Amino acid sequence: MTDTIPQVTLKPLTWTPHLPPVEIEDATPRQLEAMKVTPSAKKVSPYVRTLAHDPDSYVARTVLFNAIMYAEGGLNRADRELGALGASLINGCKYCANVHARQHARLTGTATTSALYAGRRDALNPRDAAIMDFAEALTATPPTAEQSHVEALRAQGMEDAEIQDLIHSIAIFGWANRLMHPLGHSD
Amino acid sequence: MTAVPDAIDQALGIAPGSPLHALRALRPEFVSGAEACRAAVLDPEETLDLSPELRRAIARRVVAGAGHDRLTEGYPRPADPALAALADGEMPEDFALAALARHADLIAETPAKAGPEHLSALQEAGFSVPQIIALSELLAFACYQIRVVHGLGLLKETRA
Lengths: 187, 160
Fold this sequence. Notes:
Chain A: Pfam families: CMD. With 187 residues, chain A is mainly α.
């Protein structure tokens, strides 16, 4: 694109739960274990303490989340973050969108996220556009992603192993967005 | 990789030897991680007084809307009529189950519209804070499954 989009620097948001989180002094041994609370690190975020009400799902989801977002090899980190951002924008999770837009910007610069926050989808490079189109279609309820989306990703040089990683990064935000946004507000 | 097909394999109708199964095997931590999550939301160590049947009924209600029949079949239809109504996408007569049904539909279909008033509605229907958290994770897990199955289904004609 020849026209210039003002580069946006997003400031971090603060998330506040709608429901009372677990207080460390009241936590059960399993909740403490889930939150990985040690005597030297008692500061645990309100988000973690809210979800620690159900330690089983908190631990299992965190393990899966970390595998999907940080596993070695496969799709590069920035593209995983863009998948996460695409899902978060559709699902209306402002907090998740902010976190993962900033991660994407840290990894690759602010061009893509500035275009998205300016509503300038036309200014995305073809690879980012294919990722965003797929993220939106897979995030829709029910999902509308189809073979043509996969072909568009392949046309940008993405291998199926990388597309598999992208699917999971979009899907795990279909999960995380449905916790973060309904359970709290951010500002 | 376990020898037994996991819930995602079953939903996709794939078995060892298929290209998509081989693709999934590249990320064993995604496979085992999703199975651990499935156990945690359906049959957790701490049940929080949410029965396995209730949990499966909610999951069935959520995934049924996505049109992946084998995924839906992974959640058996409950024998109990009230839970069956919940699972079938109907509005149960029971006040608490009806509140849960409304919340499940909201979270699955329009999560962006969710607000604090919807959590208050669950609390008024008798659900505790830990139960609301567990139900939130369960609903969102079903939404995750839908997207993994839908997305991987597009890779059945996989390429090296």
